[in-house]
Write a structure and sequence with these properties.
Blueprint (H helix, E strand, L loop, with lengths): L8 H8 L1 H10 L5 H24 L3 H29 L7 H26 L3
Helix pairs in contact: 1-3, 1-5, 2-3, 3-4, 4-5
Amino acid sequence: MIKDVTDLEVYRLSLELLDPLYKLATLLPPDHRRLKYQMTEAGEKIPPIIAEWFGKKRSPREFCRFLSMALGSSDEVITHIREVKIVARRYARIKEEQCDKLIGGYKILSKKLNKLLSSWQRYN
């Protein structure tokens, strides 16, 4: 039973991924500040989206809507990190392996969100 939003693995994982996302963002050169902003903004949206549903807890259908938004943001982060990998080819301080590891983390999050979404959609 879910008593607190922190009981949701997807919520905890989305918070854990923020620190490495911020670390990667700080490595971006100043001329890529828009990419830095978009990437961190997408990552920062995920935990509050999940928490907002938890605070309302109105219906399975509404939870699916919030999970879909969180999944979209997670996939958006993956795309932005792929953009960072392109930038990394020009800047030695950004390692592609660091990007790949973070992409892997967000792929896991997306899969878990998708699985949770699929299981809740059965209740609609």
